[in-house]
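Table 4 source record.
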Amino acid sequence: MSKTVSLISALLCTFIWGTTFIAQDTGMDNIGPFTFNAVRFFVGFLAIVPLAFLFELKKFKSEFKLDIKTFVFLSFLIGLSLFLGSALQQLALLYTDVANAAFFTIFYVPMVPIIIFLFKRKSIHWSVWPSVVLCLIGGYLLTNFHDATVRLGDTLVVLGALFWSTHIIFTGIIVTKYDLPLTLGAIQTLLVALFSFIIGFIYEEFIIENILNEIDSILYAGILSGGFAFVLQIYAQKNITPAPAAIIFSLEGVFATIAAWFLLNQILGFNNLLGCFFILCGVLLSQLLPLIKRPA
């Protein structure tokens, strides 16, 4: 039952991320990327923190009979990874197409098992590797990348994918030690908001009128994606190891494509549908093949 809840949490989280991609792109018509992220994640923090106090305050006190230094250190690493990943992705949207950004973002799918393999933190089921290949092929077909031009901004997206992968890995570590998903979600969103505000204050202009002009995109990206989706990710990774979790999260591209079809009237071509099929196959393989028992 707990594995089922984690899978549902992962799928819902991925759906929110995918549909938020449009809000991220349109939300910078009047404000800069760091201003957008600062307000977006602060809104996410305000949405989560009352729930953290309501449901986890007593648990928070009991958990810290353990090692508070480890909790603070891992929370900082998660917040820093989330800030760098989201900042680079948001900044890259100024310099590259959504198609390129969507394709290179899913590079965290191969990065997660490679990083885990290099540091030998956990053994990886062999099904991860063909699943990764299927997801990358699916991402290529899904985003019409063959019609795009590679830009310097794509480097930012690839670098951001590295930090998305470390965020997934660090989340996988901390959820095995502490059962505080709402508290962790509040801490990481607050850290991202603070880091984004500092850089935005130096390099951008905080104009209230311009921020209010983007309020619809900010509220959607803040409350749902910046807030609850990352809490759902923490719930999901309680029973799903980082490598398979990264493969499930690659469905973000599928949901983004479907959202663009409904909201922006973008037509799905045969290659887009084939890309969805490849990613779905990759996700299913990563979840079903480990369940097959080898004969004794």
